[in-house]
Amino acid sequence: MSEFTPSSLTAHLPRVRLAHLPTPLEELKRLRQTLQDSPRLFIKRDDQTGLATGGNKARKLEFLVGHALQQGADTLITVGGAQSNHCRQTAAAAAQTGLGCVLILSGPPIPRTEWVGNLLLDDLLGAEIVWAGDRPRDEVLAETTRTLTAQGRRPYVIPVGGSVPIGAAGYVAAVEELAGQLAQRREHVDRIVVVSGSGGTHAGVLVGVKALGLDIQVEGMNNFAVAGIAARVGTLAAETAAYLGLAIALADGDVRVHEAAGPHAYGTITPAEREAIRLLARSEGILLDPIYTARAFAQMVAFIRAGVYDPQETLLFWHTGGAAGLFARAADLMAEAG
After folding, report:
1. For 35-78, what is each residue's pLDDT tens digit?
2. 3-state secondary structure of 218
3. Which of 49, 120, 151, 219 is the most exposed place for a label (fewest CB within 10 A)?
4. Coil, strand, or helix at residue 67?
């Protein structure tokens, strides 16, 4: 790998420091002992980015908020579910930088006395909540943006998950950070396993790996049966590379996505997710979230148990955070508790 300075691939972009970086790189020695014939396992702790309990969106928001401020915006506006990690961290970024924040949340209004988990944090952070009801979120987003503009505010729209080239650039920089940590420790990983949801994190990691010429396979776990997620990641990766001015090309097989959801819908917590959360918590003292990382981690463990990965390999699981969501799903998590 050629020499590079920290975040050299993204140094020309506007950026606001929001995250606690670098995040820890830890070896999962006790987990490996628990799993038979397991590869060597590392975890990249982006649950420790700070910004209202941490998570991967902090890296994306550094670049998105930087761009928003460059454009003269005074309000961040985005969309998500009631327990959206992205919305919670967007609200925190807005509070930290003195911007307003409006969140368009799915579904009918939830009584304030029932606001828990991320939704409670959204309120504590000062976000304005707009419930989409039975209307498409994007329709309500466009309408609300027009209303804010008519009121003399300067809204900056962040698409779901911050999964656009500006946001994905945060994970190009993250790969540079990881490469530096591995070089310092004289370590190598063969695979990076990451959640594939809205696609921005996966795309950014893939671009970073390709741009630095790292011999690492990036594998996404499609955690809620998104149709065409591999194509979406590939398109976003190409757009991100072009946005950064990087002359890289994706080869056949570079975008790998495994179907971790199976027949289970988004938000469904199955015995596999419950077992994954307890397994990592009780072996390493690390908390997964109930929707994204638990499903991806469960699939990775299933692959290890099935012998899909060579025990001589070294795997890295990129933890994207979201533990605040555990408190909103306590009843589901305690069902058939072990």
Report:
1. 989 999 999 999 999 999 999 999 999 999 999 999 999 999 99
2. strand
3. 151
4. helix
Two structure tokens written together for 147: 């209303």
- The two three-digit tokens of residue 330, written as one number: 């306590």
**Beta-bridge partner residues of 317:** 43, 193
The CATH code belonging to domain 8-55+164-334 is 3.40.50.1100
CA separation for the pair 312, 32 (Å, rounded): 12
Q: What residue has token string 């077992």?
A: 275
Q: How far is CA 328 from the centre of its chain?
A: 19
Q: Which residues contact 331 (CB under 8 A, 6 or more apart)?
A: none
Identical fold at 8-55+164-334 and 57-161? yes
* Range 302-305 contact pairs with CB under 8 angstroms and sequence separation of 24 or more: 302/272, 303/258, 304/35, 304/37, 304/38, 304/39, 305/35, 305/36
Q: How is domain 57-161 classified at the architecture level of CATH?
A: 3-Layer(aba) Sandwich (3.40)
* Structural domain spans, the chain: 8-55+164-334, 57-161
Q: Is 198 a catalytic residue?
A: no
- Amino acid at position 92, single letter: A
In angstroms, the CA 117 to CA 328 distance is 5
Q: Are strands 40-45 and 25-27 parallel, antiparallel or unpaired?
A: antiparallel
Give yes or no for a contact between 194 and 318, defined as CB atoms under 8 angstroms apart: yes
Q: Which of 38, 84, 106, 163 is catalytic?
A: 84
Provide the edge-to-edge strand list for the sheet that holds 100-105.
128-131, 100-105, 75-80, 155-158
